[in-house]
Amino acid sequence: MEKKLNKTENKTVNYITIFDFITTFFKNYKVIKKVFIIFLILGIIYAIIMPKKYKSSSMVVAEINTNEVFNTVNRFNVLKDLGFNFGNTSATSLSPDAYPKIIKSRDVLLPVIHDRFKITGKDSTILMDYLIDKNFYYYLKKVTIKLPITIYRLIFPRKKNIAFDDKNNSILILDKNEEYAINILRKKVITVRIDEETGLIIVDVETKEPSLSAQVNKAILESFRKKIQKIYDQKNNENLKFIALQIATAEQDLSQAEQRIIDFVEKNSSPQTITLQLELERLKREVALRTNILNELQLQYALTKIDLKKKEPIVRIVSSPFVPINPSGINKIILIIIFGFMGILIGIVYSVFKLIIEVYSYDPINNKKIEEIKQYFSLHWKKKNKKIE
């Protein structure tokens, strides 16, 4: 460590050299060693108590029958030319980018958490009960690595859901346990990603039980398939209701057009003039047009009903969930090594911080500030001890 006097400012300027760092590391070798051993022991304990997890993967793809879509769009376009508005008929499929969000949605996961699954060594258990089971490992994390979150939740607790009756079942109402279980599924159990090259949707489920991971993965895919089918069926039902309304209107228009011909013929039993003949031809063309519209609507109604009866799955499973053999996650030896490196790093940071404090303590102004900081912590600690007593 070198000190140099600046004559113009009459101040002592301190420099830290590489030799100062090396000397400090050797002086604090025992401290670094102790911190390393402590973190190494913590890593070993964590590796021992850390539960094994098993990951089951599956792959799905969205199938679209382009011929049916093309024919449906053409049929709607014919009716559009006749003056009917059916909205955006090209939007017959969801974007693949929306599938991960749908898989993790409450509508998909709610039936899954209420389903029963077989667990090794136990009877069939409802998934929600399994997920909210707070064991020793859960409480250990709350007072160690999740201690800041625990303190924050004690000061700022979550707001409770307001209970009310939803007679139309249009709103999904969850209780506290359901919300907690779904959040665990989203954050810790399920991982959904899209392969950019193939467009396949990959669903990973990771739990402590190999068979449970595969069962939950399968249940999620089934719930997801039903949800997608429900979305498409809902769209078809909306079209069906709209077409039925248009058929009723078309029948009324046709009846009125036919009545106008009857009234015209009764008034003009034998139209001889060109004007009357043209008017009669116009009325006949109107009846023919109304008849064509009614036929098109009836055809579309029948085809839409057929589409509803088909109920072909839109989501195809390319790779079914499997029961994993080996546990997933980081290797325990690597985990212990990481803890050891963390201990060494903390020891080095402590040594560097101690060196900087020593350097700045040579300056009277900085030394005074350091003493003030020490006094503050000393007084704070004494007050805390008095409260405890």
From TrEMBL:
Bilayer disposition of the protein: Multi-pass membrane protein
InterPro entries (alphabetical): Bact_polysacc_biosynth/exp (IPR050445), LPS_length_determ_N (IPR003856)
Coiled coil: 240-300
MF annotations from Gene Ontology: protein tyrosine kinase activity
Claim: Chloroplast is one of the keywords in the record: no
Domain of life assignment: Bacteria
Record's subcellular location: Cell membrane
Alphabetically ordered keywords of this record: Cell membrane, Coiled coil, Membrane, Transmembrane, Transmembrane helix
Start and end residues of each Polysaccharide chain length determinant N-terminal domain: 16-114
GO cellular component, one term: plasma membrane
Pfam families: Wzz (PF02706)
Transmembrane segments: 31-49, 333-353
UniProt main location, coarse: membrane
Protein name: Chain length determinant protein
Species annotation: Caldithrix abyssi DSM 13497
